[in-house]
Amino acid sequence: MFKKSICLLLAVSVGFLASGCCSIIHGNRELVTITSEPTGAKVKMDGYKGTTPYTVSLDRSKDYVAEVSKEGYETEQRQITHSFSPLAIFGNILWLLVGVIVDFATGSGYNLNPKYVDVTLDKAK
Predict the structure, then answer these.
(1) What is the model's pLDDT at position 69?
(2) Does the pLDDT value for residue 73 go beyond 80?
(3) Model-level pTM?
(4) With 0-12 CB in 10 A as exposed, 13-18 as middle and 19+ as buried, what is 1?
């Protein structure tokens, strides 16, 4: 019984040490919300499609270009970029290099900016 408890404790400890802080706290995906004036505009972005207001879960390790369009209005594009998350280093002080490697390999070490995209469409000419 004692041997099984030690093995279980060791397995849990290794799993914990192999995880990065960002991976544990916020994962490798982030919700981004796109709204428009007028509402009901179509959103296209790297295989994602929706209608405003539109909330989508995106991979933190990539950049995106959101195309927002509506009939009778000019099409607009907005950049959503990934950037370094300070949590990836400061949160990994306990885990040192292992946590940093895990966070950036999984994409958890990044944040997407902006998280809220508001687009005002101009009438077509």
Answers:
(1) 97
(2) yes
(3) 0.69
(4) exposed
**Identity of the residue numbered 20:** G
Length of the chain: 125
For the cut 90, the answer to whether the pLDDT of residue 96 exceeds it is: no
114 inside domain: yes
Q: Give residue 69's identity as a one-letter amino acid code.
A: S
The amino acid sitting at 23 is S
Decide the pairing of beta strands 116-120 and 29-37.
Answer: parallel
- The boundaries of the domain holding residue 78 are 2-120
- Report the domain count for the chain: 1
pLDDT, tens only, 14-57: 444 444 444 555 567 889 999 999 999 999 999 899 999 999 99
In this structure, is residue 27 part of a structural domain? yes
Helix (H, G, I), strand (E, B) or coil at 104: helix
Main-chain dihedrals φ then ψ at residue 120, nearest 5 degrees = -105, 115
**Encoded tokens for 26:** 């916020």
Mean pLDDT across the chain: 77
47 in a domain, yes or no?
yes
Residue 90 lies in a domain: yes
Which residue from 75, 79, 71 is spatially nearest to 117, judged by alpha carbons? 79
